[in-house]
Predict the 3D structure of the following.
Amino acid sequence: MPDGVAIRAQDLQKQFRTVSAVRGVSFEVRAGEIFSLLGPNGAGKSTTIAMLSCLLQPTQGDAYVCGHSIRQSPQRVKACLGVVPQDIALYLDLSARENLEFWGKMYGLRGIALRQRVAEILEIIGLTERQNDKAGTFSGGMQRRVNIGAALLHRPDVIIMDEPTVGIDPQSRRHILDNVKELNRQGMTVLYTTHYMEEAQELSHQIAIMDQGKVIVCGTHAELIRLVGERTRLDLTLDTESDALVACWRSIAGIHSLLADHSRLTVLVDDSNLVLPRLFETAAPFGVRITSVMIEEPNLEAVFLHLTGKALRDEP
Amino acid sequence: MKTLTIAAKDLTHIFQSVFSLVMMFGAPLMITGLLSFAFGGRTSGTDTFTLPVTRVQVVNLDQPVGAAPGFAAGKLLVAFLQGQALSDVLTVTLAADEASARTAVDEQQAGVAIIIPPDFTAAATSPDRSATVVIYRDPTLAIGPGIVKDLVSRFMDGFSGAKIAGQVTADGLSAAGAEADQAIKDTIVRAYTAWLQSDEHGAEGAAVPRLAVVAPTGAAQPKSQGAARIGPIMAGMLVFFVFFMGGNGAESIIREAEQGTLARQFSTPTSLSVILGGKFIGVMVSLSIQVAVLVLASLLLFGIQWGQAATVMLVSLGLIVASAGFGVMLMSLITSSRQTGPVLGGVMTLTGMLGGLFTTAMPTIPASFDRVALMTPQGWALQGWKLALSGAGVGQTLVPVVVMLVMGSAFLVVGIVLFRRRFA
């Protein structure tokens, strides 16, 4: 791969009539790393991936996968890519083996090579015992595993996984995450999209956070955490709303930001051990009781909150 | 190779689907089978068909008192019915009395009972007397009793002729001044009756049999009249369900687009042309199998002679291309599989009706209807099959076949252009 770069996106844009789904996305994925696109639903992750997979033509910009332009050489791009779509894209009335054989043939595999590779993939996804069962009889997690296996058959240099753990049980989720790490350990470059920050945090060498069609920040986990100063987040609930108390707390040393939503407060602090006692001490004179406290160490959620002023999850 | 891979996968889907199998083979054969039953059941597949043998009980009460010695009309009738010439259609046994003969019919041990009255000979020989032969029949039977009645009536007509001959002879003698006594009249009646029973008039061993069922002959004639009627009906069903399956097969493009498997195929290094080509080949092969199975099954089940092999193959090719093209175009116009049922069912039924697929059993169709039919691909397909059924050669079916090929190709091009635009 040229310069050791597996994927290079340059100002990718996609316009759907009046909606700008992707607005100038640029990033680089180095060969052999796991790169996560993290963002809430509607951030533009899937559209970006569809363009990189040559399923959508960019309105503007270009991207290079394994050195091939998605505009100029889409067939070459497809040949070195394995794509795991967000939804299960399998033939449910065919068995796991028949599905894998079909997709293997679509990537040009034939004969003994195909049969051997299908057997390997069945082993990797843990479905050798049930290879002859129809995919429609599998649980959601098992179908997800076949869905992933179908993208690995041709030993792609780069694999793109679009939210592969949505809506599955914890056991299958663990299996998939372990598979991703193992594939990467074997040298495969992985572009992974998710809106679960824990997954991005666990898997990724680099993370790009997307919102409203743009990459708002990109870097390693440590680099992103440093953006919020490695501060601890406190979520507090008060028994009553008190503007005077909030004003008082803003002046306490060690508190960097405070967002108040009626009686619920989000506070970013340098050291919770020092600040928390002060909060309790100062609340009493105002006749206010702190009814719950949740302490969160610095994470990507805090980064997203810091950069966009809103939560990463789709919570109200 | 990828084209064949996609085609093979689609064929697996089609032949694993109960709905597809029913619509491909079950429905057309079942509908035609019901119509075949309505037209008199399964045919034997030979040039003639076998009449059911009717069991007849005869009660001969005839008492030839006063007639010429040796002449007994009742015995003659029994001998006539028991003759070798009628043994294929009648099994005649003599009953002891009228009651037992009627009981045999009531208990369906016999289909018909013939009661010959005591004065049968007297009535046969005397110009001014009459007698009634009673035919007692099983009301559930139609053909056998009808044949018996006809045979007895003809036999009775012979006696009437003899009586007329005797009277005319007597009148002639009287006019000449001679008197014809009863002995002369009896002699005339017996001579006439003997002549009537002679070889020239259908007696046993006669050159002309008393009863023969003859099928029409000629090139590519159906094996029976039933098959002749069923042939066009089966052709209508064949065309309708092949067109339906053409659309149903092409619907897999829409279904796969919704299931995400089409997008996944596009994410592999496979061009749109290869993917659509594979799907089209899958549809073509499934339709070819459908046509072959329906033609062979209808030949075996209903005795339908589809015509010359080359003609049938040519018309089949036209039908397959036209229906596959029409199906691809139709599916390219809809956007979701929820529309498939109403659109496929509605359009195929409407064009099928206009094409005359459901009125093949009607003996007379207005000429304007025929002209409207030729505005639809189904109408041309039906015309091709009707020509094949009539025994037409390849040259005679070229026009409908060429029209089908042109129409099918045009539909296919439109469909592919629309699909390419959608998935580009």
User: Anything to note?
Assistant: Chain A has two domains: 2-226, 231-297. Chain A is about 35% helix and 30% strand. The domain at 231-297 of chain A is CATH 3.30.70.100 (Alpha-Beta Plaits). The first helix of chain A runs from residue 45 to 52.
